[in-house]
Design a protein that fits this description.
The protein is an alpha/beta fold. The protein folds into 2 domains: 226 residues, no CATH class; 249 residues, Alpha-Beta Barrel (TIM Barrel), CATH 3.20.20. It contains 18 helices and 8 strands. The longest helix has 28 residues.
Length: 539
């Protein structure tokens, strides 16, 4: 068994400083979100509605287009479209499968037009069936279907060549009197300009958030105006903006920040400009789509004008705020402080020095604040029971670290390897706070190292997991810096991976506040473990 860890007073004052600094930053952010933001009021003419919105019915739990056995019932479609008919003249479909072929009938009842989509993929047999079904539906509903869209971003996904798409489009042209188009990102239309000869309308997607050089909401409308001008100068055909919009939640991309305020501003300003200029357009999208988080991360599920309960996410006039009130966060902070003070009294022998009480209060305030913010993020981001169990357990371990510091012997800990050896030799060590704290530290370091690697290797759709590791970083760093603590080789390797990973991730987006926060939390967690001499595992 390893030698006992020396008993040294916990650096309570250092804990107070780092936690109070973090609290100031967290509450400044929360309070800023409660500030009403003035923006352009959108006043449509009497009886005027949005021109068109993308409609997919997969808003309920478990609904996804990847379920081959799913068929959306007509009652759900009727409920959805009745709500949409209040705000739009038209809906765009991307497929006619899974019950979506019922949409034209319901649209007719509600006075809506339909942009009918045939989903084209890499599967030729699927494409043949889908297109024939779409053609039959368009021909049977000419009074409702105003445009047939053969394929969506197929060239972007590289699932069909331009020649193959042209053949499908020309087949559709020969089989229907309904105008035919193809929809793709504007840059792919520019690169494949010859395809315009086969269509009646050039349908382009202009999404400032997803540009290779992301555009912030302040400059988003100007970017759209410039892009529309370029597309019109390139093609001698009518132009439809087939997709444009802004997400209300998710990971920031450089200057492009998903937010309720940003979404409200973009939609209001874009629609005003579009109606003033006479643009034909379709907004993405009508209703939030939770299933899209599988493809595009958290941000993919929150492009809807309506939430999954069909409630509007923002008004069309008046100021908008990101968060209605800071009171729930403040109450959570007070609950955390109370919990930590109560747990602190469980220590034997009890100690009630001013510094220790201050540290318990500051750690508790941070614990409560981060807990509610992490819960809010989890509700948006966690996609299935596996993620709730895995990431939820990791969150509990991280949030448990200040609790172990409060009830343990001055917050002492050693290397995870030493703690594991102690536990194997003496299972009763599981009740020892020093052992638990050492193991928790090792688990958090390992998980943070994995997260740092994933964010470097596959960054596009991954959220920054800053909140998961903030509390452990704020608690472990002062202890590691100011106490003679054992550090194992494993911890040092993980710390190096975290440090290199967060720096590498930040370099790609140096002005992104979310990347900066991840950099700060990661370096705080890692740096204190890099200057220690690795301990030798003793038997």
């Amino acid at each position: 068994m390893s030698n006992p860890i020396p008993a040294v007073a916990t650096p309570w004052r250092a804990l107070i400083v780092v936690h109070l600094l973090a609290l100031i930053g967290l509450f400044a952010w929360v309070l800023a979100e409660t500030r009403p933001v003035a923006m352009h009021d959108l006043h449509l003419a009497d009886g005027e509605r949005l021109k068109c919105v993308s409609y997919a019915p997969y808003r309920l739990p478990g609904q996804t287009p990847f379920d081959p056995d799913l068929k959306i019932g007509i009652e759900q479609i009727r409920t959805d479209l009745a709500e949409l008919a209040r705000i739009t003249e038209c809906v765009r479909l991307y497929s006619v499968d899974q019950g979506l072929d019922q949409v034209p009938t319901v649209a007719r009842e509600l006075g809506l037009k339909v942009l009918l989509g045939a989903w084209i993929s890499a599967n030729p047999e699927h494409n043949r069936k889908e297109l024939e079904h779409a053609l039959a539906l368009a021909n049977a509903n000419r009074d409702v279907v105003s445009l047939l869209i053969v394929g969506n971003e197929v060239l972007l996904r590289r699932e069909r060549s331009m020649a193959q798409m042209e053949a499908l489009i020309r087949h559709a042209q020969a089989s229907t009197d309904v105008p035919v188009t193809y929809a793709d990102v504007w840059e792919f239309w520019i690169e494949n300009a010859e395809l315009a000869d086969a269509v009646d309308t050039v349908t382009v997607h202009i999404l400032p958030f997803w540009e290779n050089d992301p555009v912030g909401v302040d400059a988003a409308l100007e970017h759209v105006v410039d892009t529309v001008r370029e597309v019109r100068e390139t093609f001698d055909k009518p132009v439809l903006i087939g997709e444009t919009g802004w997400p209300s939640a998710g990971r920031q991309r450089e200057a492009s920040q998903p937010s309720r305020v940003g979404q409200a501003r973009y939609i209001r300003e874009f629609v005003h400009q579009a109606h003033q200029e006479g643009w034909a357009y379709n907004l993405i999208e009508a209703v939030d789509q939770p299933w899209k988080r599988r493809l595009e991360g958290t941000v993919g599920g929150f492009w809807g004008i309506l939430d999954t309960e069909l409630a509007p996410k923002f008004p069309l006039s008046g100021p908008v705020r990101e968060r209605e009130s800071a009171v729930p966060v403040a109450l959570a902070a007070l609950a955390g402080a109370t919990l930590m003070l109560v747990l602190g009294t469980l220590r034997r022998p009890p100690r009630t020095t001013f510094a220790r009480v201050g540290a318990l209060l500051s750690m508790g305030l941070t614990l409560g604040t981060v807990s509610i913010l992490q819960w809010e993020h989890a509700v948006l981001a966690y996609r299935d029971p596996f993620e709730w169990i895995l990431l939820g357990a990791l969150a509990l371990i991280g949030l448990g670290i200040p609790v172990l510091v409060a009830v343990g012997p001055s917050g002492r800990f050693g290397s995870a390897a030493d703690a594991w050896q102690r536990l194997r030799a003496h299972p009763a060590a599981l009740t020892d706070t020093t052992t638990l704290l050492s193991l928790a530290r090792g688990l958090v370091l390992f998980a943070a190292a994995v997260a740092a690697l994933l964010l470097v290797m596959d960054p596009r759709y991954r959220d920054f997991p800053t909140l998961l590791y903030l509390v452990p970083a704020l608690c472990l760093a002062p202890l590691q810096w100011l106490e003679p603590v054992r550090t194992g080789v494993e911890e040092r390797v993980c710390a190096w991976v975290i440090a290199i990973g967060v720096i590498g991730r930040w370099i790609s987006e140096p002005l992104n506040p979310q990347a900066v926060a991840w950099l700060a939390a990661g370096l705080l967690l890692a740096a204190s473990f890099l200057h220690k001499t690795p301990c030798q595992h003793q038997q």
